[in-house]
Design brief:
This protein is mostly helical. It has helices at residues 7-37, 42-56, 71-80, 94-107.
Length: 110
């Protein structure tokens, strides 16, 4: 979904994204440590970790294309992936919050 955003929303997104991604990557690192410390052969754990990292590195919680026109879709992906919640958007403009909430409301039939 492409949509131009307000300057204030864009600046706030750029400011908050680093913290959101750091927290998400910290969560992933803890999951990786559990995987490595779990049951199974070292080779099996290694290849499972490699598979997880390959999948996780494509998620918005790890990497986001920094385009203003993609702000809404990036925020929707961050919510879908559990990196942030809709409550994390409280400092953004009401219009942006509504644009991010809309896909979830459609899915729930609201």
């Amino acid at each position: 979904m492409e949509r131009e955003c307000a300057e204030g929303d864009w600046k706030l997104f750029r400011k908050k994204l680093v913290g959101w991604q750091d927290a998400y990557i910290d969560k992933l690192n803890k999951e990786y440590l559990q995987l490595l410390g779990g049951e199974g052969s070292p080779a099996k754990k290694f290849w499972e970790l490699e598979k997880r990292i390959r999948a996780d590195r494509r998620k918005a919680g790890v990497i986001v294309e920094m385009k203003r026109s993609l702000l809404v879709s990036s925020l929707v992906e961050l919510v879908r992936e559990g990196v942030i919640t809709l409550d994390d958007l409280s400092e953004f403009s009401e219009g942006l919050q509504e644009a991010v909430r809309w896909p979830f409301e459609v899915e729930r039939g609201l």
